[in-house]
Amino acid sequence: MNYFELNYIEQSYSLIDTYKHMLAKDRKLVQNRKDRYSAFVNSCNGVLDLKVNYDETEKGLLKKNVEASSVFMKHWLLEKIDEMGNGN
Questions:
Q1: Residue 54 pLDDT exceeds 80
Q2: Residues 6+ apart with CB under 8 A from 37
Q3: Structural domain harbouring 46
Q4: Rounded distance, CA 36 to CA 24, Å?
Q5: Residue 7: CB partners within 8 Å, gap ≥ 6?
Q6: How high is the pLDDT of residue 70?
Q7: In the chain, N or C terminus with fewer CB closer than 10 Å?
Q8: Is the pTM of this model over 0.90?
């Protein structure tokens, strides 16, 4: 989230990839929590993609998916999605 806010796009993608690998290998994390974190990471990737290459249709799909899920940090994700297309 911090890298996104600082507009560190490449570093954000790298951190997302690292976190995906960590989640896949973590055997102690409860599956429900792992699912929520994975959904967050995938949604962050979608928000980054929008920031790099804005597409109104993709924005709508991403927002719909986030709203329908029990993703971690849902409020922040929806806030960032709503900001897209408004000069970002």
A1: yes
A2: 19, 23, 29, 72
A3: 2-83
A4: 13
A5: none
A6: 86
A7: C
A8: no
Q: b/e for 39-64, b at 16 or more Cβ within 10 A? A: bbbbbbbbbbebbeeeeeeebeebbe
The total number of residues written for the chain in this structure:
88
CA 31 centroid distance within chain: 19
Structure-block tokens of residue 85: 């297309």
pLDDT tier at 17 (50, 70, 90 boundaries)? very high
Give me the number of domains the chain comprises. 1
Q: Does any domain span residue 88?
A: no
| pLDDT of amino acid 85 | 79
CA distances from 67 to 10, 26, 38, 55, 61 (A): 26, 27, 15, 18, 10
H helix runs in the chain, sequence order = 2-5, 9-25, 31-52, 56-68, 74-83
Q: Which amino acid is at 45?
A: N
